[in-house]
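A.,

Following up on our hallway conversation. Structure tokens first:
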């Protein structure tokens, strides 16, 4: 399940007036166009939006469980009104999924303002008994939110698989160069002055690249390898983690995404964990899940990856995050 707060909606308000507006909002917030998915968009008492998406189950008997997952996630985020979209070209599946979610929301006291099915080119009202069999055509290419995404440099992927691929290695040669550079580095000590000095160097570089938001221009094999060696130490990684804030999170997403794409599989877990946290804090739950999957695939016991995964599964809102004081870390003890 992908969950998250909707980025960009506070600083640039967007008013939902039509079904087409909702259909444009979903890929804008998720970062990809859903397929065979059940999507829930909600508002709280302060009209702050929240969205969640989950794959439609192969077995219709699983719809009640899927609906409950989405509804509980919405309640944890203060939902008082809901919009439901089922992405499928199967009318029977769409009606069953929509009914299950609307009914679950109603039982929890959350009214549904709109419920539709969309097949990629037409949308259909749910619960109409087939009265609108032809549906209503829609094309998102000229929509305001699609234009805003282009102007903001925001990439909207064709589907979730393409989003996952966006974290794949840039090319085998680059990854091999990073691995070779890493093999040339000496091991960092587990504590002491050398570790502290390397940590201070890392933070200086991270803050510079985050501020510039152009890490691809500066990340050569040696610097990438040195980053990976440093964050493999839990205390150093936690120092970077503490430095990720709501003010600089977009720069961190850009930086760690680039590092993940240059990382050998055996070294990627700490960088992917940091990317997962940064993506979650920015409200990009879909990217956060992709990063968590990459992290835990490389290291199933990685603590930060597990923590971010738990936050996503429990639909904990990023607004609840309280920054950690770096001075409390073991790196600065004594």
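Then the amino acids I'd put at each of the 334 positions:
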């Amino acid at each position: 399940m992908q969950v998250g707060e909707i980025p960009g909606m506070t600083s640039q308000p967007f008013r939902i007036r039509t079904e087409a507006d909702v259909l444009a909002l979903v890929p804008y917030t998720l970062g990809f166009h859903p397929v065979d998915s059940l999507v829930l968009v909600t508002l709280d008492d302060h009209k702050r939006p929240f969205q969640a998406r989950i794959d439609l189950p192969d077995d219709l008997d699983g719809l009640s469980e899927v609906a409950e997952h989405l509804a509980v996630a919405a309640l944890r985020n203060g939902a008082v009104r809901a919009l439901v979209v089922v992405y499928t070209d199967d009318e029977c599946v769409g009606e069953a999924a929509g009914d299950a979610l609307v009914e679950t929301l109603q039982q929890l006291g959350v009214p549904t303002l709109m419920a539709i099915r969309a097949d990629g080119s037409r949308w259909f009202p749910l619960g109409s008994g087939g009265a609108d069999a032809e549906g209503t055509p829609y094309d998102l290419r000229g929509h305001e939110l699609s234009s805003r995404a282009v102007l903001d440099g925001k990439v909207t992927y064709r589907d979730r698989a393409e989003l996952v691929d966006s974290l794949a290695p840039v090319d085998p040669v680059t990854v091999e160069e990073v691995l070779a550079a890493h093999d040339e580095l000496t091991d960092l000590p587990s504590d002491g002055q050398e570790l502290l000095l390397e940590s201070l160097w890392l933070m200086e570089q991270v803050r510079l690249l985050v501020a510039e938001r152009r890490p691809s221009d500066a990340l050569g094999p040696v610097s990438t390898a040195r980053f990976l060696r440093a964050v493999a130490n839990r205390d150093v990684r936690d120092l970077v983690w503490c430095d990720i804030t709501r003010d600089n999170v977009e720069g961190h997403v850009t930086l760690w995404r680039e590092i993940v794409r240059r990382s050998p599989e055996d070294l990627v877990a700490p960088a992917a964990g940091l990317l997962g946290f940064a993506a979650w804090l920015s409200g990009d739950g879909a990217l956060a899940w992709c990063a968590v999957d990459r992290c835990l695939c490389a290291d199933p016991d990685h603590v930060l990856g597990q923590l971010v995964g738990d936050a996503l599964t429990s639909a904990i809102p990023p607004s609840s995050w309280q920054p950690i004081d770096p001075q409390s870390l073991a790196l600065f003890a004594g």
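The chain has a mean pLDDT of 89. Curious whether your intuition agrees with the design.

B.
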